[in-house]
Amino acid sequence: MGDIKWACTERLNSDPMVDVSVQNISKTYDEGTVKALSGISFEVEKGELFGIVGPDGAGKTTLFRILVTLLLADAGEAMVNGSDVVKDYKEIRSKVGYMPGKFSLYQDLSVEENLKFFASIFGTTVEENYHLVKDIYVQLEPFKRRRAGALSGGMKQKLALCCALIHRPEVLFLDEPTTGVDTVSRKEFWEMLKRLKSEGITILVSTPYMDEATLCERIALVQEGQIMSIDTPDGIIARYPDQLFAIKSDNMSGLLRDLRAHPEVASAFSFGEYHHITFTDKQKIAEGASSFLATLSHHNLEMHTITPTVEDCFIQLMSHDGR
Amino acid sequence: MKQFFIFVRKEFLHVFRDNKTLLMLFGLPIAQIVLFGFALTNEIKDSKIVICDYAQDNASRQLIDKIAVSRNFIVKEQMIDQQQIKSVFQQGDVKLVVVFPNNFEQDLLHSNQAQLQVIADASDPNTASTLTSYISSITSDFQQNFNAGNQMQPIISPEIRMLYNPELKGATNFVPGVMALVLLLVCVLMTSVSIVREKEKGTMEILLVSPMNPLTVIIAKAIPYFFLSLINLTVILLMSVFLLDMPMNGSLLLLYLVSSILILCALSLGLLISNVTESQQAAMLISLMAMLLPTVLFSGFMFPLENMPVALQVVANAVPSKWYYIIVKSIMIKGVGFLSIWKETLVLSGMTLFLLLVSFKKFKIRLQ
């Protein structure tokens, strides 16, 4: 077992394309009673925009903290930009950018002072790497004398991103950068990330929002400290095993109850306007959907096939896991 | 090095932008000096006493005048007999009754011995003994002057001299204590709270994930508080010398030097506390408990250490402020040089070094 692991690490080290590699990382809290991560492994290539997608408590923050050397894993190994997260923690600290999930800048310092401070503790100046943050910073510029604590949620995240970027990190770790940010700002934020990617910076971003997953090049779906699936968003969707249908009626909550009780329905979940359902017997439905609809006594029933979203895949993987 | 100065500058900005911190830094010492100087003093002023003069002669008049001009007493003259003394105490706020017997001057001149009855309300024993000691010191002073005028043999009487503090001024006792208290409180509290604040706000996470050496971070955080504490010390000294007539007989340089050691000691203690706490409230509470109580109890400025059980006296040795208190008293009041206080300074330096090493060793370079 040990030999295999060693061989893996060796291969990764020699591969110049791999920027972040995680091997069997496990972490528990409170003397082993709380499991945060259980044997996670994955690789991120240089210049890749990689998403860690999962609900709260899946272990995303713990994973990021291990990778940026803030926590020690109980077991497993991890390399970031060619440096070991335990042995070479000092090297990693000077070449990664880290944006914690909680807004963590100095609230009593102004926008400008925060940016200057973080530039200088990394031994650089704002001018030197201004081109990296320019697109974001122009939006902040009108408020540069305002205290960071007085900014809006979206502005705060943009400033935090600027501060994490100002030293031109090799790898950027963004822990839930869009949590608590409005939809417009979220969209802008992701556009910025795409632009940064073109600078050749490897970006690891975690998010609880499934709709953001499709904006990443590759994603890892995590749940309870384990990776359920790693692929491109399209790949994950393509791997969805069933034909998915969207269904709606006048009485949505009653419909969901009836669907879940129905013997032919394998799964049913509420997705806004529609319920997404799969069937135990695909063949039968393809032959006659109307006979199925007839078994439901609902008004204005409407059903059609749809392509699954990442969220459908996540739910499918989760319930599959449970089984 | 440039990083370091920028960090120190940032720390100063934090201090100056937070009114609560500023108030703590400068309000605390001023409030303490005022409190201890004017309110919580163990010096007794303006006590009401009744003097009953049966003698009505020259000597008794002179002594009464002498008592009356003292700041400690408000004198009321009243002719009462022995039975009425009790009721005088019961009626009001009279703390002391002095009775001059008949023939006071005659006795003094002819038999060299005169008696004076001093009756105190000993329900508060401390006040009673302090007041009677005031009276006896006034009386013995009077005796000497009275004898000087006559060619009589001096009366042999026990002579009590209060060295260094003949007027038994309270300031000499409490100013060094307040200095120790304020310096410890401000430094321990401020450093521990400011480091824990970075933890609580999450900024410590970003600072750790930066090329900055964690120790540099800590030292840079401590520097503003070091300088502000020196300013604080100056404020306390100015107030106590000019407002409370505290003597300053020794070397100012030496005093600042020793104070710097105490400040360092307090800063490293604050650092140690910040390592084991996760919230500002906890840091504040531990700092207060760890600083205020031992300093008040064991430095000797409120409760004399000599009266404590041996076990507590041993415990007191571990309290830095005890040593600082001795040193400050020696420098300010006795005006001694370094040679007389080197032992205490050595102990204090040893403690500082120990705390500094432990807190550096305990400092976490990660979150857990």
What does this structure look like?
The complex is a heterodimer of chains A (323) and B (368). By secondary structure, chain A is of the alpha/beta class. Chain A has 2 domains: 2-237, P-loop containing nucleotide triphosphate hydrolases (Rossmann fold, 3-Layer(aba) Sandwich); 241-307, Alpha-Beta Plaits, CATH 3.30.70. Chain A contains 13 helices and 14 strands. In chain A, the strands form 3 sheets. Chain A has a 6-stranded mixed sheet, with helices on both faces. In chain A, helix 4 runs parallel beside helix 6 (153-165) and helix 5 runs antiparallel to helix 6 (153-165). Chain A is globular and about 70 Å long. The two termini of chain B are 28 Å apart. In chain B, strand 1, helix 3 (58-69) and strand 2 form a beta-alpha-beta unit. The longest helix of chain B is centred in the middle third of the chain and has 31 residues, at 171-201. Chain B has a 4-stranded mixed sheet with strand order 2-1-3-4, sandwiched between helices. Helices cover 67% and strands 6% of the residues of chain B. By secondary structure, chain B is mainly alpha-helical. The relative contact order of chain B is 0.11. Classes of the chains: A alpha/beta (323), B mainly alpha (368). The A-B interface holds A 65, 68-72, 89-90, 93-94, 96, 98, 100, 102-109, 113, 116-118, 120-123, 163-164 and B 2-3, 6-7, 10, 13-14, 17-18, 201-203, 205-212, 365-368.
